[in-house]
Specification:
Blueprint: E1 2-3, H1 4-10, H2 16-24, E2 28-30, E3 33-35, E4 41-42, E5 48-50, E6 53-54, E7 62-67, E8 95-97, E9 105-111, H3 114-121, E10 129-136, H4 141-149, E11 151-153, E12 156-158, E13 162-168, E14 173-179, H5 186-193, E15 197-206, E16 209-210, E17 219-221, H6 224-235
Parallel strand pairs: 9-15
Antiparallel strand pairs: 1-4, 2-3, 2-5, 5-6, 7-9, 7-17, 8-9, 10-14, 10-15, 11-12, 13-14, 15-16
Helix pairs in contact: 1-2
């Protein structure tokens, strides 16, 4: 027996947090009965249905994808825009871990493992996400110090783990910024709050995973060793 939200996430339908939301909203049926209690337990003999979809346990799949510009990080889009899932031809119900903005490029993990997705996105696990931002006008040390002090975004204090100016020309600066949360438009809002426009933004690292050897629009399967290393990072004690 296991908790319903865990059963849903392990089926590959969605993350555990999303599963909890679906249960609370009365979207989940167990043996044709609507369930709204998070403590409900099920086993392999129970029939679990969400929006008409019967859950089945699936083999876990993990991919690293280099998201191109102009692609939305969703499984479908009502505006008929290209989504990250258009790059995957599979019967498995995959979904992106976290998100990148429409015009942001770079690393994205795609999986059907809800527990893994939750582990990668939960702020307490301190999984680093490293971005390279092209910003204008030119950034200086004083601006880096402002970012490191923390920026109030929608009532939350957002403090980057690291900020480093990589280079500058007469109009722009290339800045490396590391975070471990990933709120909506977080990096763009941090720069905008101190008077900078983000011209280009690319995620170049997630934990130990990098863009090396992965061109835009291409994917590769994660190695078992890489998955194990990511879990080790999340479980690392400070």
């Amino acid at each position: 027996m296991e908790r319903l939200q865990k059963y849903i996430s392990e089926s590959g339908y969605c993350s555990r947090r999303k599963a909890e939301e679906l249960i609370k909203k009365g979207k989940v049926l167990v043996n044709n009965k609507i369930i709204t209690e998070l403590g409900t337990k099920v086993d392999g003999n129970d029939v679990v249905i969400i929006d008409g979809y019967k859950l089945e346990k699936q083999d876990k799949e993990y991919y690293l994808f280099n998201k191109p510009r102009g692609v939305v990080t969703t499984t479908s889009d009502d505006k008929k825009r290209k989504t990250v899932m258009d790059y995957f031809e599979t019967e498995t119900r995959l979904y992106p871990v976290g998100r990148l903005d429409y015009d942001t490029t770079g690393l994205l993990i795609i999986t059907n493992d809800g527990e893994f997705a939750n582990m990668m996105t939960h702020p307490k696990n301190n999984i680093e996400k490293v971005y390279i931002a092209k910003v204008k006008p030119i950034m200086k040390g004083e601006h880096v110090r402002l970012l490191k002090q923390g920026i109030n975004i929608d009532g939350d204090l957002c403090i980057p783990d690291r900020v480093k100016i990589k280079s500058s020309d007469d109009k722009n600066s290339i800045v490396e910024i590391t975070i471990h949360e990933g709120k909506n438009h977080e990096i763009k809002k941090m720069f905008e709050s101190i008077g900078f426009d983000v011209v280009k933004l690319t995620r170049v690292r997630i934990g130990l995973l990098t863009l090396e050897g992965l061109i835009s629009g291409k994917k590769r399967k994660l190695k078992p060793k890489e998955i194990k290393q990511l879990y080790a990072l999340a479980n690392k004690k400070e």
